[in-house]
Amino acid sequence: MSNLDVRPAATVCGGRADVSAAPVRDLLPARTVQLGESTQVRRLLPSLGRRMVGAWCFVDHYGPDDIAEEPGMQVAPHPHIGLQTVSWLHDGEVLHRDSLGSLQTVRPRELGLMTSGRAIAHSEESPRDHARLLHGAQLWVALPDASRHIAPAFEHHPVLPEITGGGGLHATVILGDLDGAASPGTTHTPLVGADLTLAPGTDTRLPLRPDFEYAVLTMSGESHVDGVPLTPGSLLYLGCGRRDLPLRADTPASLMLLGGEPFEEQIVMWWNFVGRSADDIAKAREDWNSGDRFGEVHGYDGDRLTAPSLPATPLKPRGRER
């Protein structure tokens, strides 16, 4: 998924200085962003309160939207460097095309994982004949310096490990590992992403790693996470130092658990690029607009996106929190 801001701000984030070593309960605000022709998203990372959770550096939540009479998601070809994109759906389908020649329809509870490495381009769109509802999340994972220049790749995993615990909790492990179950998706830093379904009357505790920092995204329904009431489209940052997480729901609810070791490196994130310096970003922008390095996405009916102008102000490191 693309960041379609016409004046995207450059963000410097990462490092351990602003990671809470103890459990916290910080509810982070979302902002509404127009994505493509007919999709609005709630942008939760980076936010006014926090820029990263582990290596997770970008979180958009969208829907559920009724797109029966609409084209649905239409995101034209755009570039990425230095990150992985994670596509996760609860309703609908998204057709992925990329400059490697990948053509894949991603469906609910299937993992679409794209590793940009040194450079890739892709598009995302609802198929011409699509389901009525579209509901999901698009997330980015920052690649560490040792992996950010690797060859690009795309993975599709239709079957993922599941955990059925007591107390009404069912979990699907999207990336990393959780409570002994490990996703087949490729990771480059210690992290976890999981889809949590809470049945009516759920009252349980989910085992966590105290060396990870965590956040929870509410996809649907109302729930209580460590005593904090959550509604759809909210992100609760939980800090580190937790060995388990209390979960409760009186009615059906669904959450996404995001976590990982605090990301030690400082990164610069602008538009659809994650680098280490302003020069990294400027070079990627120049290469994309000139047609170098990223390859072509074939089959999308429309023009590719053009990179916006770089900000006039120099980058200033601000840490993981604003």
UniProtKB/TrEMBL annotation:
Query: What are the entry keywords?
Result: Iron, Metal-binding
What SUPFAM superfamilies does the annotation carry?
A: RmlC-like cupins
Obligatory cofactor(s): Fe cation
Name the segments for region: Disordered: 298-322
Which Pfam families does the record match to this protein? Answer: Pirin (PF02678), Pirin_C (PF05726)
Q: Which residues form the Pirin N-terminal domain?
A: 40-141
Stretches assigned to the Pirin C-terminal domain: 194-294
- List the Gene3D superfamilies: Jelly Rolls
**So which domain of life are we looking at?**
Bacteria
Write down how the cofactor binds this protein: Binds 1 Fe cation per subunit.
Q: Does the keyword Metal-binding apply?
A: yes
* Matching InterPro entries: Pirin, Pirin_C_dom, Pirin_N_dom, RmlC-like_jellyroll, RmlC_Cupin_sf
Q: Which GO terms describe its molecular function?
A: metal ion binding
The record's similarity note reads: Belongs to the pirin family.
Tell me what this protein is called: Pirin family protein
- Native source species: Actinacidiphila alni
